């Protein structure tokens, strides 16, 4: 999927896979060179222990190294825990994401 500007990452603790996430790289008319974080998952037993904060520090540094000006992500409306987490990291809510299955 590299030819589609997508990169998938594993999060390891020693030799154990404890999470995954993906990054899409694109240019947006409203945001310039952008990185979209996609499909973040960290095993529940490792949540709330600083792994997510460390993950986003990595994502922000990695996106900056690829000349991104912004990072964006989507979250389900009722996922209040993630909203609080993202806002504590300095992310702001900018709109709604609409979907229509075909």
Structural summary, described in words:
GO terms for molecular function: acyltransferase activity, transferring groups other than amino-acyl groups. Keywords: Transferase. This is Acetyltransferase (GNAT) family protein. There is one protein chain. By secondary structure, the chain is an alpha+beta fold. It has a single domain, classed as Aminopeptidase (3-Layer(aba) Sandwich). It is built from 2 helices and 4 strands; from the N terminus they run βββαβα. A 4-stranded mixed β-sheet has the order 1-2-3-4, with helices on one face. It starts with 5 loop residues before the first strand and ends in a 14-residue tail after the last helix. The model has no long low-confidence stretch (mean pLDDT 93).
- Kindly report how far apart the N and C termini lie: 23 Å
| Coarse structural class | alpha+beta
CATH superfamily descriptor: Gcn5-related N-acetyltransferase (GNAT)
* Name of the CATH first level: Alpha Beta
Instruction: For the largest sheet, list the strands in their spatial order.
Output: 1-2-3-4
Strand residues, percent: 35-45%
CATH architecture classification name: 3-Layer(aba) Sandwich
Number of helical segments?
2
Output the radius of gyration.
14 Å
Provide the number of structural domains: 1
User: Uncertain regions: pLDDT < 50 for 5+ in a row?
Assistant: none
Helix content: 10-25%
Instruction: Please give the largest β-sheet.
Output: 4 strands, mixed
H/E element sequence:
EEEHEH
Shape: globular
CATH topology group: Aminopeptidase
| Average pLDDT level | 93
DSSP strand tally: 4
Keywords: Transferase
GO molecular function: acyltransferase activity, transferring groups other than amino-acyl groups
InterPro entries: Acyl_CoA_acyltransferase, GNAT_dom
Pfam families: Acetyltransf_1
């Amino acid at each position: 999927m590299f030819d589609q500007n997508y990169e998938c990452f594993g999060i390891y603790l020693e030799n154990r896979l404890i999470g995954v996430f993906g990054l899409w790289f694109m240019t947006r008319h409203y945001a310039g060179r952008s990185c979209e974080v996609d499909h973040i998952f960290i095993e529940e037993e490792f949540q709330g222990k600083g792994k997510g904060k460390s993950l986003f520090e990595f994502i922000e540094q990695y996106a900056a190294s690829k000349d991104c000006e912004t990072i964006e992500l989507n979250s389900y409306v009722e996922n209040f825990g993630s909203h609080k987490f993202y806002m504590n990291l300095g992310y702001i809510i900018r709109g709604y994401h609409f979907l229509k299955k075909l």
